[in-house]
Amino acid sequence: MIKGVFPVEKFHQLNTPFYYYDIALLRATLETIRREIEHKPFHLHYAVKANANPRILREISSFGFGADCVSGNEILRALECGFTPNKIVFAGVGKTDREMEIGLDNNIFCFNVESIPELEVLNAIASKKGKTAKVALRINPNIDAHTHKYITTGLTENKFGINEQDLPQILKLMKSLMNLQLIGIHFHIGSQITNLTSFEDLCVKVKELQEWFNRKEINLPIINVGGGLGINYQHPNHIPMADFESYFRLFKKNLQLQPNQELHFELGRAVVAPCGSLISRVLFVKEGIKKKFLILDAGMNDLIRPALYQAFHHIENITSNKEAALYDVVGPICESSDLFAEQIMLDESARGDLISIRSAGAYGETMASQYNCRNLPLSYFSDQL
Ligand code: LLP
Fold first, then answer.
1. Is 205 in the pocket of ligand 1 (CB under 6 A)?
2. Domains with residue ranges and CATH for the chain
3. So what's the pLDDT on residue 143?
4. Do 67 and 268 form a contact (C-beta atoms < 8 A)?
5. Which of 3, 105, 248, 283 is buried most, with the most CB atoms less than 10 Å from its CB?
6. What pLDDT, on a 0 to 100 scale, did the predictor assign at position 80?
7. Is the Cβ atom of 309 under 6 angstroms away from ligand 1?
C-alpha cells in the first residue's frame, strides 16, 4: 500500500500532536479550481469555517477567491488575511447585532439572511448607520443530500433557511425595509456530498426559483449554491483532490444563467481537507483481551470528526515498515467516543512511532477544543519545515 510522503526526520524533532499542511497540494487544488471557473461567471467564496488558519487563509485569498464567513470574528480574520470586503459573504441563522455591525462597518458584499426577524433587525441596524445591506435570501430547497444527518442542511425539518412558501410574504415585507437591497438567492444542501445527483436536484430547484422571480420581474444578480462537494477519505494517496471538473461541469450544464447573473459557490471541505494531516505519537500499545489498542497523544479534542460523526479518516504509521497488524486507534481522553478507528490494519506499531491521520485539513483544527485542559494543536506547513 502506498503511504503518504512526510518529512519524518523533521517531525521527530517536533512536539506532537500537530496539524501538518501540504502547501503544494493546497496550491494545486486552488489552481485547479481557478482553471475550472475562469471564463465562466462563477465565483468561489471559500467557507472559512472549514479551516481558518491564517496561513491557509492567506494562500486562498492570494488566488483571488472570496470568503464565506459565519461569525463576526471570521469576517475580521478573513480581512486580516487578505480577503477584500467586496468578496466576503456573511451567513448564519443567528447573527448577533454586533456581528451585523461588523459586516456593515466593513462594507461586506452580502448578508445571507435566513429568517424574517433577521431581515427586520438587519434593516434597523443598517438604517441607524445610514447604510444599505445587500441581502441574499437563503432558501430551504428541501433536498436530501444523502449525507450524515448532522451535516445535512437542506431538508424542510431544519433550522436553516427560509421556506419557499414564505417568499411572497418576505418580498412584500422587503418593500418596506428601505435599508436592504435584495441581490440574490442562496442555498446549501449539506456537506461531504459525493453523489453529485443531489446537486442536479438542487439545479432543478434553482431553475424553478429563477423562473418564479422572473415572473415577478425581480432581477437577481446572484445565485449562490453553497458548498458541500465531498472528498475521498478512503484513498488520500490515490485520490488527493475532489472532482472539481465534474462538479463545475454539472452546474454549467444544468443551470442557465441570465445575462449579468453570477453563480457563487461556498466550498470549504473540498478546498482544504486533503492538504491537512493530524500527526501524533504512539504513547502506548496496550494489549487488550482480543484487541490491541494504539493509544495516541492526539485525542478527540484535536480532531472531533470521528467521535462526532463516526467519520472515517485514513490512518498510517509513517515510521514503521513492519508487518501490519490489527489495532483500535484511540486517544487519551476518558470518553469511549475518543476513538479514531476500530480494527484497522497498520504497520506494527511501537511507543514513539508517528501516526498520520489523513484528510484532516477541513473541520479539524477549526473544531479543536481544550477539553481536559489540553493544549490546542499547533500547525506546521510543508514549505516552512
Ligand atoms: N455554506 C454553508 C451555508 C454551510 O453551512 C457550509 C458548511 C458550507 C458552505 C461549506 O460546506 P463544505 O463545502 O465544507 O461541505 N463539521 C462538519 C461539516 C459541517 C458543515 C457545515 N456547513 C464535518 O466535519 O463534516
1. no
2. 8-18+274-384 (2.40.37.10), 23-273 (3.20.20.10)
3. 86
4. no
5. 248
6. 98
7. yes
Which parts of 216-355 fold into alpha helices (H)? Answer: 244-254, 269-272, 305-309
Any atom of ligand 1 within 6 Å of the Cβ of 65: no
Could you tell me the distance, in angstroms and rounded to a whole number, from the CA of residue 250 to the centre of ligand 1? Answer: 20
What are the grid coordinates assigned to 223, written together?
445565485
State whether residue 315 is helix, strand or coil.
strand
pLDDT tens digits, one per residue of 283-303: 999 999 999 999 999 999 999
Ligand 1 atom 9: residue of nearest CA:
227
Q: What is the mean pLDDT of each run of 10 residues along the chain (385 residues)?
A: 92 98 98 97 98 98 98 98 98 97 98 96 98 97 72 63 93 97 96 96 96 95 98 98 98 95 98 98 96 98 97 98 97 96 98 98 98 98 96
Please state whether the predicted TM-score (pTM) of the whole model is above 0.90.
yes
Residue of 29, 140, 143, 191 to test ligand 1 pocket, by largest number of atoms within 8 Å of CB: 191
Contact of 369 with 301, CB cutoff 8 Å: yes
Instruction: Pick the closest to residue 367 from 287, 283, 268, 286 (CA basis).
Output: 268
What pLDDT, on a 0 to 100 scale, did the predictor assign at position 199? 97
Would you say 206 and 157 are in contact if contact means Cβ atoms under 8 Å apart?
A: no
Ligand 1 pocket test, candidate residues 48, 95, 266, 303, most atoms within 8 A of CB: 266
* β strands within 189-338, DSSP E: 222-224, 262-265, 276-287, 292-296, 315-317, 324-330
Predicted local distance difference test score (pLDDT) of residue 152: 57
What does the alpha-carbon distance between residue 66 and residue 275 come to, in Å, rounded to a whole number?
Answer: 19
- Residue count of the chain, please give it: 385
Burial class (CB in 10 A: 0-12, 13-18, 19+), 243: middle
Q: Is 154 in the pocket of ligand 1 (CB under 6 A)?
A: no
* Cβ(266) – ligand 1 distance below 6 Å: yes
Grid cell, residue 209, equals 426559483
